[in-house]
Amino acid sequence: MESEILRTTAQLDAVREVWQELDRRDPASEFYTTWAASRAWWEAFGRETGVELRVIVATHNGATVGILPLALETRGGKNPRRVLRFAGHGDWMGPVAAPSLPPATVYRSLITAALDLPGWDLLDLDNIRRGSPFAAHCLADPALNPHFAHRVEHPVIGLRGLTTPAQVPKKARKYRARAVRELGLRFTKHPGDTDGILDRLARLHRLEKEHLVAEHGRSERHSWSESPARLGHYQALFAATETGAMTYCYETGDGRLLAARSTFRHRYTLLSWTSAYHPDAAAYRLGKALQLDILDDLIATG
Q1: Residue 230: inside a domain, yes or no?
Q2: What number of CA atoms fall less than 13 Å from residue 220's CA on the CB side?
């Protein structure tokens, strides 16, 4: 098995179709290391000083069998370190591997190529899904096992077997009924960046942050729209049709945005990216009510 290191945007764009086909075939692939998600991250953060692309592509008999999207990032001030990390950001990360070969064979080749890369001080592969084939490989490898740490797992709602909204707790429906009745809410959906939803979501997120800081002393709160790189990351993700970006909202009759949750879809998984609510509606638990409407919509549309 051979490996190639992609270091430029042109090289990254050139493997788009191969990467996407590999992702479609790999049942264990993750959304945030698809080509579209990695390309969006690179579009936003690749402009920053100290970030370099290092995407590893494994081939076997001339065919691409594995991709591990990495980047080399300089961190720290007085004592900077060169960190080899995933070229992306999100809930779960990992390589893409062809199902025609044993996963361990492909993973071993990709990891070996990563360890052989020059110029890094720390290998930091974060947010690997617990129970994934890649996590199992890392735990089984004597060299990787001592460095593989479990963290709090991201919450997952399993919808298998859920075929009717009646199975949802009544309390959640009471929250929604009250909010709809007293606020005159409409449930709306915005694919991609239609209707300028990303800008509207950014304004709502800033309002929520300012409310939490002023009223509850939450000085640690920040808004993603205040960071040019993070905002650029969002813009690229929302612009890419492959990400299935969808923002679910509660709006008043005159179009005032009171709550929103943006999501991406990868196969049969809906991944929540960010959410926000208007301070004027803080007492209505709109987050819970909105999740209920999202669930109803998923059941209805499939």
Answers
A1: yes
A2: 0
- Taking Cα atoms as reference points, which of 67, 89, 48 lies closest to residue 5? 67
**186-238: pLDDT as tens digits:** 999 999 999 999 999 999 999 999 999 988 888 877 888 889 999 999 999 99
| 10 and 143 inside one domain | yes
What is the extent of the structural domain holding 219? 165-301
Confidence (pLDDT) at 135: 94
Please indicate, yes or no, whether residues 118 and 227 belong to a single structural domain of this protein: no
Q: Indicate if 202 and 134 belong to the same structural domain.
A: no
Residues in the chain: 302
pLDDT at 142: 92
Residues 102 and 207 in one domain: no
CA dist 107 and 29 (Å) reads: 12
Most confident of the following: 33-42, 224-233, 261-270: 33-42
Contact 30, 266 (CB under 8 A): yes
Verify that 114 and 202 share a domain, yes or no. no
Residues 25 and 135 in one domain: yes
Cβ atoms of residues 105 and 1 within 8 Å? yes
Sign of the Cα pseudo-torsion (258, 222, 200, 214, in order): positive
- The tokens for 192 are 């991609």
Give the predicted TM-score (pTM) of the model: 0.90
